[in-house]
Amino acid sequence: MERSRIDAAVDGARSLAAEAGIALPGFASWSRADWLAGAGSEAAAVRPAMERGLGWDVTDFGRGDFDRVGLVLCTLRNGTLAERDSGAGQTYAEKFLVAQDGQETPMHLHRRKTEDIINRGGAALVVELRPEQADLDTVVTLVDGLERAVRAGVPVRLEAGQSIQVPAGVFHRFWADGGVVLAGEVSSVNDDVDDNLFLDPFPRYAAVVEDAPARYLLVSEYAEVLSGAR
């Protein structure tokens, strides 16, 4: 993806959140320079946020067609893998998501993460679940806290305020239908590096084409910063 388009997508997500009255943490407005200055400071106060993967992620999932397959995410809260594995401390995560009309997050699963996908506002969010086991055709889950048996491949339509639980080990995809959707994700600890298995093997993060100076620092770039490579 072009850097200019990534930065514009973050600008758009911030504007949509503000218009909807969704207040984001202060770091959601930080520039690339703000992050780099904080990470390089003697106190390095922002390093824990970077180590937890807090901040912006704009991806086309390696498809090269962001309008059709893509998502804008901001990780607001997240525990560490050590906290996840010990079951103590911050064992939860939260994300803010923006999906444009018809824009899909492709079929994937998480081995370690159970999540609620929430329609915070806008158009309808359509979610499709599939068991990993090919001989199963139903997923028993919760929709707004009520148990529901969801048939594999049958779309579940979430209107604003509704949510669906996606258990660990269940394939899922989702897309906005009828307009932009502001969504949320509340889950166990999030690990986007090693806990995403896509049905079609494409990368989780976008390859970036540097067509303009970068204004935002993406979560996928933190590892290089923390290692001192940037």
UniProtKB/TrEMBL annotation:
<dbReference type="GO" id="GO:0046872">
    <property type="term" value="F:metal ion binding"/>
</dbReference>
<keyword id="KW-0479">Metal-binding</keyword>
<dbReference type="GO" id="GO:0047828">
    <property type="term" value="F:D-lyxose ketol-isomerase activity"/>
</dbReference>
<dbReference type="InterPro" id="IPR014710">
    <property type="entry name" value="RmlC-like_jellyroll"/>
</dbReference>
<dbReference type="InterPro" id="IPR010864">
    <property type="entry name" value="D-lyxose_isomer"/>
</dbReference>
<dbReference type="InterPro" id="IPR011051">
    <property type="entry name" value="RmlC_Cupin_sf"/>
</dbReference>
<dbReference type="Pfam" id="PF07385">
    <property type="entry name" value="Lyx_isomer"/>
</dbReference>
<keyword id="KW-0413">Isomerase</keyword>
<dbReference type="InterPro" id="IPR047581">
    <property type="entry name" value="EcSI_cupin"/>
</dbReference>
<keyword id="KW-0119">Carbohydrate metabolism</keyword>
<protein>
    <recommendedName>
        <fullName>D-lyxose ketol-isomerase</fullName>
        <ecNumber>5.3.1.15</ecNumber>
    </recommendedName>
</protein>
<keyword id="KW-0464">Manganese</keyword>
<comment type="similarity">
    <text>Belongs to the D-lyxose ketol-isomerase family.</text>
</comment>
